[in-house]
């Protein structure tokens, strides 16, 4: 896990080294173990890197890295989990390695395969690769969008980095992006490829871009992680590998490391499954679990500590329980907002547990992130299709009229969403938005400048975006899976895991958010209309007889922190959205100087 940056001039002009170094040093926390940069002597390109050493801790793993003939140069962020197999493939065809990093493997693979290498890559990654002979620059990002990559184009120049704020530190970017700001207020996070900076865009997940001096940019999607939901993976009908086998394969790949590996252990099925399978796949001293505990949750169902302790004991894994108090949140609040690369109403839980992991000396930790999307265990998987089925007959015009009529009658403490039920609940994408929305579109002119709100809503084209994500997917359950994966997981959970972990120089790995695992689990379905769920996972884990029965039947709680109680004084188990809205306003207020000037609520 690292931070990368670069500047490219299409006319071959000399690179502004000072700007490049400012971008790199803004990302110091992403890579405290080393720093490097390289400028093409012919002009046109500069690469910079901050290193968090996890594979090949020696100087042979330092970046920017080049092939021995100097033709290819690369900066890389993330991990290639199948790099030992890819390395063996390259060596069998004559490649000679200096070290044993996955970055070096990627260089050799590209030298041999070019763009044909993409289907071979398994991991989380973003990279920039320069071909000095062809004078081309290739940028790419992993299929699920686990690792970030942002870029800013200005005339004939291109700048790119692992963080929006790094690009801004280098003098790139622009004014406030109305659609990005509106996206944050609607969802609580910004939908890619938008950012809140009009001059900066996110590289879409599973895409690559190539720039060649003197030629137009070429962009293409090399892999669609949701392709299995569109029918390109046939159900196995109960044959082949079992569920725990394919999960175990992903977890084993994610254990690849030259440093000890931690585990964020809650009382839920996802991290429990990882604990069981990871502890069986690696020596016990090399795996260490940790759990956060909160006084507000003590002696309630939301307290993860007793269940997590039971799982750790059953797996004989060393386990640390870290108590977090309101004073800890208050003390970290400014640092949380400073570390947050794009605005988000989530991520505090990951920030706090990452801080605890770093305090234990860990540089890598496994997370159960992705399991709820993979196994359909959010309430949205049940509620959204049910709403859409009940309201599909309502004409949109009737829904809009109902909203106008009902909205003034709603009591102040009732969610504004109720006014939009007939307007948005008519199909799965609309009902999903209603389920996940933070603010509703008609509220925005009272939250930010009305002109900015209307411009942002028009550019965002929310309904079209939602429909595009479910195009070609027939089953309502699978449509929700596509939406949860492409919207909530990618733009909120994965992005928060990146900035919150990197704030503490911690690499967070997500073995349940893995494109190959997605295809494998969907392929294990008995039929197209019968998805695998957490119930299937519980049964397979229970059959092993290792986990206490109480843990297998425990009701889902999620990986929570009592932020609502800390912000508003409401009960920790309150289900209203006052805490999220209050935090959204705090996030905007923290950015009001400069990039969001005049936009704070």
Verbal overview:
It is built from 23 helices and 17 strands. The chain is globular and about 70 Å long. The chain has a 6-stranded antiparallel β-sheet. Strands 4-5-6-7-11-12 form a 6-stranded antiparallel β-sheet, covered by helices on one side. It has a 5-stranded parallel β-sheet with strand order 15-14-13-16-17, with helices on both faces. With 601 residues, the chain is α+β, with helices and mostly antiparallel strands. It has 3 domains: 220 residues, Aminohydrolase, N-terminal nucleophile (Ntn) domain (Glutamine Phosphoribosylpyrophosphate, subunit 1, domain 1, 4-Layer Sandwich), CATH 3.60.20.10; 228 residues, 3-Layer(aba) Sandwich (Rossmann fold); 93 residues, no CATH class.
What order do the helices and strands come in, and which of them pair?
Blueprint (H helix, E strand, L loop, with lengths): L1 E8 L7 H10 L7 E6 L5 E7 L13 E2 L5 E9 L2 H10 L9 H12 L9 E9 L4 E6 L8 E5 L2 E5 L2 H6 L8 H10 L13 E2 L4 E6 L5 E4 L21 H12 L6 E4 L4 H13 L5 E8 L10 H11 L3 E6 L1 H14 L8 H12 L4 E3 L4 H5 L4 H12 L4 H11 L14 H4 L3 H9 L13 H11 L1 H9 L5 H27 L4 E3 L5 H9 L10 H11 L4 H4 L10 H6 L9 H13 L11
Parallel strand pairs: 13-14, 13-16, 14-15, 16-17
Antiparallel strand pairs: 1-3, 1-9, 2-3, 4-5, 5-6, 6-7, 7-11, 8-9, 8-10, 11-12
